[in-house]
Design brief:
Strand order of the largest sheet: 1-10-9-8-7-6-4
CATH topology: TIM Barrel
Order of helices and strands: EHHHEEHEHEHEHEHEHEHEH
Shape: globular
Structural class: alpha/beta
Number of strands: 10
CATH class: Alpha Beta
Helix content: 40-55%
Distance between the termini: 11 Å
Strand content: 15-25%
C-alpha cells in the first residue's frame, strides 16, 4: 500500500518561495529578468515542493506542476498548431485557464516534460511520476479552427501525446499518469475514448495510470477497467464512496484510491480515512492500493493540503501495521 498525490500542489503558503516565483514571473513578463533566471526560481520552488512531500511521508511524488499555468496550456503551448486564447472556467471549479485553439494541424515538436522530470528526479530518491493531460480531455477543453470536429483533433492529440509518453518512458519515468476527467462528463463517448487510449498507450513501456476525477465511473466501469492501464486512479469523494465500482475492479490491476477531498478545506479524520481503506481491502489486494487525494491539491491552501496529506499518511501507516 502506497501514498501519493494526483499532480499539482499548492504554490501559495507561508515560509515558501512561492511569492518569489510570482515576482519572477511578473519580472520576466516585463523583460526585467532573463528566462534563465525565471527557470532558476522555478527550480527552487519545485525542489521545495518535493522536499515537503518527502517530509510528509509520501511514497510516490510529483514535481507539483510548479511550471504549469494550467493542465491545458502547459502542453498546448508546446504543441505546433495551437494558439492560446482568453480565459475560460475549468470544469465546475473556481479556477480558469487560457483556452487553446487549434489553428493548424497539431504536431509534436520536442519532448515537453522530460527536462522537468529529469530535474525532479535529481531532487529525490523516491519515485517521481509524471502527469500528462490526456487527448480526450485536452480536445474537449480546446477549440478548433482547423479540424472539422473535436474527434479529429483528439485523434491527432492521441498520436502527439503518445510520442511524449514514449519519450518519458525512455527517460526512465517509473509511472506516467494520464489525466482524463472529461470522460466523466461525456460517458456516451466511451467508444471514442477507448480507441484514443489504444493509440495513446501504444509502445509505452513504463507503468501507466488513468486518472479520472470530478465524478464517478458509474455506468462505464467495465469499459474503463478493460483499458490497458496498470493503475486506475478513482475519485471516491465527489459522488460518495462507490463500492459498486470497487466490486468490479480487476484483480490484476492497481487502484488509486482518491479518498481525500482536494476541493474542501475540511479535514478528514484518521478514522474516516482508515475506514474507507478497509472497505477497499475487501475487494482489492492491499499491495495494489495507492491512497491519494481525489484530484490535484492546488484548489486548497497550502496548510490544509499538508494537514490532509499528513492524516492520510498516518491512516495508511496504521492500516499497514494492522494488516501486516
Amino acid at each position: 500500500m502506497y501514498t501519493t498525490v494526483i499532480g499539482n500542489y499548492p504554490k501559495i503558503g507561508p515560509k515558501t518561495r512561492a511569492s518569489s516565483l510570482r515576482k519572477a514571473i511578473t519580472k520576466y513578463q516585463l523583460n526585467e529578468i532573463t528566462e534563465s533566471e525565471l527557470r532558476q526560481c522555478e527550480n527552487e520552488v519545485t525542489s521545495e515542493i518535493i522536499r515537503e512531500q518527502e517530509d510528509i511521508g509520501l511514497d510516490i511524488l510529483t514535481d507539483g506542476h510548479i511550471r504549469w499555468d494550467d493542465p491545458q496550456t502547459f502542453f498546448a503551448s508546446r504543441i505546433h498548431g495551437f494558439q492560446i486564447n482568453g480565459l475560460i472556467r475549468y470544469f465546475d471549479t473556481n479556477t480558469y485557464y487560457r483556452q487553446p485553439v487549434a489553428i493548424d494541424k497539431l504536431e509534436w515538436i520536442n519532448p515537453i516534460s522530460v527536462n522537468d522530470y529529469q530535474f525532479a528526479e535529481c531532487c529525490s530518491d523516491l519515485p517521481i511520476k509524471v502527469v500528462i493531460t490526456g487527448p480526450f480531455t485536452l480536445a474537449k477543453l480546446c477549440q478548433s479552427r482547423y479540424y472539422k470536429n473535436v474527434d479529429s483533433m483528439a485523434k491527432d492529440l492521441a498520436i502527439i501525446l503518445n510520442k511524449e509518453a514514449i519519450a518519458l518512458a525512455e527517460a526512465g519515468v517509473p509511472i506516467i499518469q494520464f489525466d482524463e476527467p472529461a470522460i466523466l462528463r461525456h460517458k456516451d463517448q466511451i467508444p471514442l475514448f477507448s480507441s484514443l487510449m489504444s493509440v495513446l498507450l501504444e509502445g509505452v513501456t513504463t507503468r501507466k495510470a488513468l486518472c479520472t476525477y470530478f465524478g464517478g465511473l458509474s455506468g462505464i466501469e467495465d469499459e474503463i477497467f478493460d483499458l490497458p492501464f496498470d493503475i486506475f486512479n478513482l475519485d471516491l469523494v465527489t459522488n460518495g464512496f462507490d463500492l459498486d465500482s470497487l466490486k468490479k475492479f480487476p484483480v490484476d490491476k492497481s487502484i488509486g484510491l482518491g479518498i481525500i477531498d482536494a476541493r474542501n478545506v475540511k479535514l478528514e479524520s484518521v478514522d474516516e480515512i482508515q475506514s474507507n481503506i478497509y472497505k477497499t481491502c475487501q475487494w482489492v489486494d492491499p499491495e495494489k492500493i495507492q491512497v491519494s487525494p481525489n484530484c490535484g491539491l492546488e484548489f486548497l491552501p497550502r496548510s490544509n493540503a499538508r494537514s490532509k496529506l499528513r492524516r492520510m499518511v498516518q491512516a495508511v501507516t496504521s492500516v499497514k501495521e494492522m494488516i501486516s
